[in-house]
Write a structure and sequence with these properties.
With about 100 residues, the chain is an alpha+beta fold. The chain has two helices and five strands.
Length: about 100
């Protein structure tokens, strides 16, 4: 048995956001999974990541943040032990 947390790979509906780094975000409250799709070099949809242990209240704060990118880089990305993540889909240009 692995001690690694299970990360949901089920599709999550995404909504585009105003951000220079992030293309779209979504959330699955049934699995407490945050989906973040980053922008590629041209500003289109890039790699998709899922972050575990992200509840609905946290998602509301995230999507309502004044700056989605700033909130992500200050509160989510540096907390990989709290929000373990996995790359679900690679940037289509890199595939």
């Amino acid at each position: 048995m692995s001690d690694k947390p299970q990360i949901s790979r089920a599709p999550i509906a995404l909504s585009t956001v105003e951000s220079s780094q992030i293309h779209a975000i979504g959330h699955d409250p049934a699995t407490n999974t945050l989906a973040v799709q980053f922008k590629d070099k041209e500003g289109g949809p890039g790699s998709l990541y899922h972050y575990s242990n992200f509840d609905a209240e946290e998602f509301e704060h995230f999507k309502g943040a004044e700056s989605i990118g700033s909130h992500f880089y200050k509160n989510i990305k540096p907390n990989a032990t709290t929000y373990p993540y996995a790359r679900i889909e690679t940037d289509p240009e890199q595939a």
